[in-house]
Amino acid sequence: MPELPEVETTRLGLLPLLGKVVQSVEIRYPTLRWPIPKHLKQTLPNQTLHSLTRRAKYILCGFDTGTLLLHLGMSGRIQLLDRNYPPEKHDHFDIQFSDAQVLRLRDPRRFGAVLWLDNHHQNHSLLNQLGPEPLEASFNANDLHHTFKNKTLAVKNAVMDGHVVVGVGNIYASESLFRARIHPETPAKNLTLKQCERFVTEIKNTLQDALNAGGSSLRDFFGTDGNPGYFQQEYFVYGRTGEPCKVCAKPIQCIRLGQRSTFFCAHCQKRAT
To answer: Could you give the residue numbers annotated as active site?
Structure first.
């Protein structure tokens, strides 16, 4: 699943569309996670794209009369293409702009989303209960320590809760915990303020490093220009079961937490006694 760095990389790749006017909309397969609104074929033409922002893993496209919400789901990707580029099997949704560029959503597993929100989109149920953005100052050690103090679940699962902080998915949770030298099964309530300070720092560093590398391309993710991300080449633990730790050379281990594979180094991330 694309995580925050991949979604932000996609958003940045769409910035050339700002100020452009929609010419037409094509819906080839309307049944994604939720049905694509049919009225978009009438609503969007002749509207100007004024803003491109991101909240958690949602890309928010601000038009004259509302906001188009895009989500990549499990396997989606968005490309910028010439209008003459033929659609392929899983290309479900196009926005053609007046300069002949096309925003195209490809989603083989159809867990993505295309929704139309009014001008008060921040009150929408998908957005109004989200936690802070991890790369902003609102995500800090003091607040995280306070949030964790009554949470008995494993810190790996706790940090992946979008009410705690958004966008820290399975890959970046594992990587950040390794960098912070915190065992993923540690109960969240047991983290000290000092550990939370280190954890917040490493979450920010890990996500920024991933952004700088264009995200991670494991199966389906490619940027809007069709190029893959390269952060997977820098993984310390994710997907490296049995391989030597890059720090201590002990084998990387894998366990299941919350039905997700969780990777760590038992030597570098010692369980608290």
So the answer is: 2-3, 57, 260
